């Protein structure tokens, strides 16, 4: 049975993100290989992964080579660093689906790159990236940035469990 995952902000090929976010790698190549390995330890070929943006700083050929190595059906929601390239560019780089805008998933989860304003009366949860190792407080936000999840996509089962645990506290 296939599962659904989310993840954000890999920044494949981005040497400077190692310093910006204190990532534990010597260089971008080491970081890339570790992130590919981590992805494939949890995602099977049949699974679906929503990538919430800022995927790759490489050219199309190198980006496609990475996308091809990653398990699952991949859906990209464009992040601020992805927007310089067209939707067609990302589809040609190997993503199964691409959205320029946030999407609503299972009528309850708003998937976006940047956190969206959510007041306490909204029944939704915003699953986002963009802010890397920072976290927003409250039950309406879930940060899927790689730094918080050991560079592994997070399953929706895990997200739902964490939201229920937060609600009970």
UniProtKB/TrEMBL annotation:
Q: Where is the Calcineurin-like phosphoesterase domain?
A: 3-130
Spell out the Pfam families in the cross-references.
Answer: Metallophos
Give the stretches traversing the membrane: none
Entry protein name: Metallophosphoesterase
* Species assigned in the record: Paenibacillus dokdonensis
């Amino acid at each position: 049975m296939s599962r659904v995952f989310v993840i954000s902000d890999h920044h494949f090929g981005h040497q400077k993100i190692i310093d910006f976010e204190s990532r534990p790698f010597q260089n971008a190549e080491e970081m890339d290989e570790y992130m590919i390995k981590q992805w494939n330890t949890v995602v099977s070929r049949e699974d679906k992964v929503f990538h919430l943006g800022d995927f790759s700083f490489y050219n199309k050929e190198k980006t496609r080579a990475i996308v091809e190595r990653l398990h699952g059906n991949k859906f990209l929601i464009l992040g601020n660093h992805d927007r310089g390239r067209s939707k067609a560019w990302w589809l040609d780089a190997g993503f199964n689906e691409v959205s320029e805008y946030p999407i609503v998933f299972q009528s309850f989860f708003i998937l976006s790159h940047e956190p969206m304003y959510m007041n306490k009366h909204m029944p939704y949860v915003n699953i986002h990236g963009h802010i890397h190792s920072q976290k927003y407080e409250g039950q309406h936000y879930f940060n899927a940035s790689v730094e918080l999840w050991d560079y592994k996509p997070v399953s929706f089962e895990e997200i739902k469990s964490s939201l229920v645990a937060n609600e009970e506290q």
